[in-house]
Amino acid sequence: MKSVMITYDQAFQERIVETLTYANCRGFSCWPQVQGRGTKTGDPHYGSHAWPSMCSAVMTVVPDERVEPLLARLKALDEESPMLGLRAFVWNIEQTI
To answer: Which fold has domain 2-92?
Structure first.
């Protein structure tokens, strides 16, 4: 099992959920308002007067074989709109209950 955490501009919310659904990643948790700043490019997302936009994050735990198809879909989505700062991170899951 793997955990995939996805961070993105709030404008991506609907498309991220659609991508998870299409990739058969049924269960996930979402944090709708996350502050942050990307490591490569893009503007900070602080929810302030100077930087009013916000990020969101979602985490899903999936079987290993679903990770690569999901990452491929997310990469395509990011390439369509690179300024929206989509990032995905994968961790091993040792146990679940």
So the answer is: Alpha-Beta Plaits (3.30.70)
